[in-house]
Amino acid sequence: MRFRPGVCFLVFLLAMGTSSLFGQSATGKPSLTEEGIGLFKQARYAEAKEKLSRAAAADPRDAEAKAYLPGLHGGGGHRAP
């Protein structure tokens, strides 16, 4: 039997649940990062900071959450990345 990387990758995607790889949890709810960005866009900066901080703490590799945080740490900042 020959090793097929493409088949292995497909099996991996199915096992992980593709929705969790594209920003939503397996339950279909928005991720903390998505919620935080939504709050940021609604100018609800204190709530956005809390959600994005939790997202970054839960996944230190979450570059999107980390990109929004510097503008929020300086007293509610209002700049998007």
Question: Keywords for this structure?
Answer:
single chain; 81 residues; mainly alpha; 5 helices; 63% helix
Poorly predicted sequence stretches spanning 5 or more consecutive residues: 16-21
Task: Count the DSSP helices.
Answer: 5
* Average of per-residue pLDDT values: 75
Rounded Rg: 16 Å
Q: Can you put this structure into words, describing what you see?
A:
By secondary structure, this protein is mainly α. The protein has a domain at 27-76. It is built from five helices and no strands. Helix 3 packs antiparallel against helix 4 (45-58) and helix 4 packs across helix 5 (63-73).
Brief synopsis:
The protein has helices spanning 5-16, 18-21, 32-41, 45-58, 63-73. The protein is an all-alpha fold and 81 residues long.
Please write out the topology.
Elements: H1 5-16, H2 18-21, H3 32-41, H4 45-58, H5 63-73
Helix pairs in contact: 3-4, 4-5
